């Protein structure tokens, strides 16, 4: 028997941290056909039970209608997904589950290895000794969990100072479940720290003694980093060119006391986490120990999704599908109306967790609104006069939800021609005019820190979906066959026993920078020969022969601009004026050239070194032809090894990850980090709680770093599993 086309599916698997003993049950979402926009019911699906010590399958839980328990003894149950082996066996043309019997018949054996990393510290200090990396390997007859223990040159010496990233395990198959599969057990999601700074270091770093005392200190058993070796403890994010975003995303000594202010960057408190990303590789070897087939799959660990029955308006799957299939559907392709409805459903379920009046910039209970909102960012990032996006007090969450319901009802008879005109173009995210800011999706930020746009492929879906629905009774989308060349089916594959929250369809897309992945990192090396910073087109590395591009800015690729000018009302309100340039969001820009992978395209750069100034046009430019790199491995939905090494897809995220839940408010990813919960009708529209409120009393507390009614950094660092509550149906889920 012959084995061909080995695959690990899903090609990108997301585990979710938690310290409870038992992993979360698999679950399914059951929509109400009479209420297609509403949050679906969440019920347990078939759940495979495995023994963590031995890797044996010990049973299976049947589907039922009982509520899922997301916590156990006050701790969050981790999501520990399976990675399944598929292959083309014998005369089969489709991929099918690979079994031990298949290996025996082919005279092959299996071995595997995994490499994961955490590059968050290295991303900021640029010290290779700050990379944290773990590597394990095992034979096909070893079913014990292989601990992923991260080593770092700047850690304290000793076996106890290896960062626990979790474990990978080859599950032992049985007669009922013969398929070969691995399981990724994530870490606990804990905060780790650094040894104290000396008095001399504190003086040199200008850390006043009053700031040195904080409400939270990392427990001694989790102090791993040696502050006398490395510079992470005390690091300042003061280089605007090289930082991850316009603000620092790390726990810092500061006035809040942890918030790191953009205009006054504070030194790092030396904290980090046990989040990681990397790959798993499986090899099939013959009796001579020669590799016959190999395959890889990417893995990452991430925070839990706290509203697991909701979906995003733009998901990582949308960005990956656009990179894989292109920005437009093929001519003549039939686009089911259900695909457009899914986008509207994601918008509805995202808006459901947003306090629209607050995010619009309205005053609340007579007090100025100082929340971190898009209107506030418009006036702080640009000279745009501060003003709400919509007419003040004319919008409320319930009112916006009603508009989405009307839109869905209209779409059911075919996509209305006017609908696409309501959507924001990816080329117009810097349009800060009144009309431009009101385009959909509204009030949410994209990876360029301006207003969010859908992917070009999503917009094309909205334009073309339902064109043939009225003339074809068979309007439902067909499930695609899992074949070696059907890369989109591989990309979206969920797995037999994996829940929705472990795949790319559950992860926020076009993030700023994100919760699971900083997807901007995937575009840094899309042009062969150079490496860019994640967000501003600045060249930080150039191969020999391209040194003239180092520290210059990419302005245009294959005729498509990568820099644009934001514009909006003048200060006196008499007209429209240009503000300042910004880097356009890469996912929608580089998607225009990925179909030319392997070919060279003209790329225009600034002629002068431009470390501190971004210009939309330069009088002098350099044009160089660069090859477009293959984003995916051949015949696969797997992101190419050349695009990102282990630790790079999470490197731009907060350190520790808990900072994300405090520094970044809901207009980035409301479905995963909710904002507005427990909604009820009220005289002026709606009332409800801020998800970050310590007490649920129905009075929404506007986000304020000084307000003691809100969960703060110390709460998150010390007891995040206790204070963060899951949302089911838009309300606090009852705790077991």
Measured between the Cα atoms of the first and last residue, the distance is 51 Å
Overall structural class, as computed from helix and strand content, comes to: alpha+beta
Report the average pLDDT across residues: 88
Largest sheet: 6 strands, antiparallel
Radius of gyration of CA atoms, rounded to a whole number: 25 Å
User: Which consecutive residue ranges, at least 5 long each, have pLDDT under 50?
Assistant: 256-262
Helix content: 10-25%
Please provide the count of β strands: 32
**Broad shape:** globular
Number of helices: 15
- Please indicate the percent range of residues in DSSP E strands (runs of 2 or more): 15-25%
Architecture overview:
Helix 6 runs antiparallel to helix 9. The chain is built from 15 helices and 32 strands. It is an alpha+beta fold and 736 residues long. Strand 19 and strand 20 form a beta hairpin. The protein is globular. The strands form 11 sheets. Strands 1, 9, 10, 13, 14 and 15 form a 6-stranded antiparallel beta sheet that branches.
